[in-house]
Amino acid sequence: MLRWKWLCWSRDGASVAVLRDPEPFSLPFPIPKWPQGGGFAKGSICIGELEVLKITKFERIWSSRLSSEEEGKGAVFYKPSAIPNGYFSLGHYAQRCNQPLHGFVLVARENVDFQPVSSLPALREPMDYKLVWSSNYSVDESHSSCGYFWLPIPPEGYRALGYLVTSGPNKPSLEEVRCVRCDLTDASEAHELMIDMETIFPALPCQVWKMRPFSRGMLGTGISVGTFCCNTDSSGVDMSNIYCLKNLDSSLNAMPNLEQIHALIEHYGPTLVFHPREVYLPSSVSWFFENGATLYKKDVKVGEHIHVDGSNLPSGGKNDGAYWIDLPDDDRNNSVKKGNIETAELYVHVKPALGGSFTDIAMWIFCPFNGPATIKVGMANFPLSKIGQHVCDWEHYTLRISNFTGELWRIYFSQHSGGKWIDTSGLEFHEGNRAAVYSSKSGHASFPHPGNYLQGSEKLGIGVRNDTAPSMLVVDSSTKYQIVAAEYLGDAVKEPFWLQYMREWGPTITYSSRSELNKILNLLPHNLRYTVENIFNSLPMELYKEEGPTGPKEKNNWVGDERW
């Protein structure tokens, strides 16, 4: 009976009174009225033959969870509500129980102002529904309080963009959803598991996933619909039957203009907080150049002083190892390493995301030096002398803004070789709608809250420490920033010379990293050494050699999506 209650409310309704649904989330302060111009924050977006609208108000249909004590392990399913006349739903929404209600689904209508490329309508009703999964495993009875997942069966030449959920065995109305003509859709992929039913019901396998466009980044045309997908085969995820929308309007009409970008940064620009014991602080790029940064060329012993604007740096090409930048080779070396936070500013790259339905504002911070790492093994900490250090460090965080409303939707926190998106409901807000971004001591990785983040095994307490803490060492990115690139605006933004430098911002120095690690391993009990060594071997290779990073434009997320 306990298993039954996990997926179906008890018939007397007792469970409904105990379990609470997620509360809706909103930003701490209202969104301001943005400067006028173009299609930004107009509520709807034209993407060719379709006009789409973002719906954030929902009607709860059904939820799946074990008990009030473990409700965070479940998921809640909703259908969009208050859909304006003329728009049609494309599918239902799902999210975890342990998060505030903060999501969207798109609804669509045909765009009468766009010349169609086909005689077929852009939207059509499904022909029927296929029951994909149900929590009602009894074939002899009908239970009106269980979950039923339905996949629309599209007409030929059309595709379904989402599932529908009911709390009873009757099929949804064919009027409730629309399928989209194939040429107006793009491929999707599953990317985040929300709930795995099989862990509770081995006989009823079903995994529910969030979806995202397969092709993403600055050039991607896929638009997330906000719907979910499910897989009833425990051997893998079948994504062959669910798609996303495609933006066929190359004008990217909903992207913000330059005035609107400034307004967004001034309203949402986070406070970048460095550790109170940080030695290697940021600076502006011009301060670094002005204080002795030197350009070296392969096979040439004497370096060249870099002009304050970087105009004598080699432009374009690729990172072929022919050039690199280094600290001044004089008594300024140590002071330049420590940076100059008073001059520091964020270098901003603005680009379309998810087919132009969102704007990504990537904010890059420059530090003249990245300090060595500290290894944690249980309760013991081992500061290293070399591993992890290198000349120059480029780190960033990215604000993802909804082009429907101008609302900050999430922030990406770059963390060494990867990173993580955090929904706005999980951010720490300092002033107004401006979040805090905490920079880790020595390594400058970005995190949403103060604390110790371990790169390695959190479970075993073994790995590289990333310590963050509140301090007065801050950079206010809402005022101290420079927009350095926004390709979709054409010539409106002039890129600085140094941004075109594609080689390394630091020399490559080879040394034996194993000697430092072996000292740590030799101090450990024999039964721990093998486990710790395996974790060390799984850490990114960049920790084990001193190599200057490439600049922002050489990173794969400059054109592509963030790594998540």
Question: Which helices and strands, and how do they pair?
Answer:
Blueprint: H1 2-7, H2 14-18, E1 44-46, E2 50-55, E3 58-64, E4 75-80, E5 88-89, E6 93-96, E7 105-110, E8 123-124, E9 128-134, E10 148-153, E11 158-159, E12 164-166, E13 179-181, E14 185-196, E15 207-213, E16 222-223, E17 228-231, E18 243-246, H3 258-268, E19 271-274, H4 285-290, E20 294-297, E21 304-305, E22 323-326, H5 333-337, E23 346-353, E24 358-370, E25 374-377, E26 380-383, E27 390-402, E28 408-415, E29 418-423, E30 429-431, E31 434-439, E32 446-447, E33 451-457, E34 462-468, E35 474-476, E36 481-485, E37 508-509, H6 513-523, H7 526-538, E38 546-547
Parallel strand pairs: 19-31, 23-36
Antiparallel strand pairs: 1-2, 2-7, 3-4, 4-6, 5-7, 8-13, 9-10, 10-12, 11-13, 14-15, 14-18, 15-17, 16-18, 19-35, 20-21, 20-22, 23-24, 24-27, 25-26, 25-34, 27-28, 28-29, 30-31, 31-32, 33-34, 37-38
